[in-house]
Amino acid sequence: VSHTFEVVNRTAEPxxxxxVNPSCGCTVADHTKEWLQPGExxxxxxxxxxxxxxxxxxxxxxxxxxxxxxxxxxIRGEVIE
Length: 81
Prior knowledge:
Layout lengths: L1 E7 L8 E6 L4 E5 L9 E8 L5 E11 L6 E9 L2
Antiparallel strand pairs: 1-4, 2-5, 3-4, 5-6
């Protein structure tokens, strides 16, 4: 199961996603590697290995270049047969 989040640079300066950290080993994440100019859009894609049935909530912490506190993205869903 994958979901792609759009990330928009709403600042007046270029920004870059430094790293993304999934909340568990069952989730991997990828992101735009280039600097985003003001107004530009990048992406963060979270992919979950959905092996168990039921509801899930997973998070991906997104660290921007030069910032210590992450932005947290959440993906929720239900795995059914």
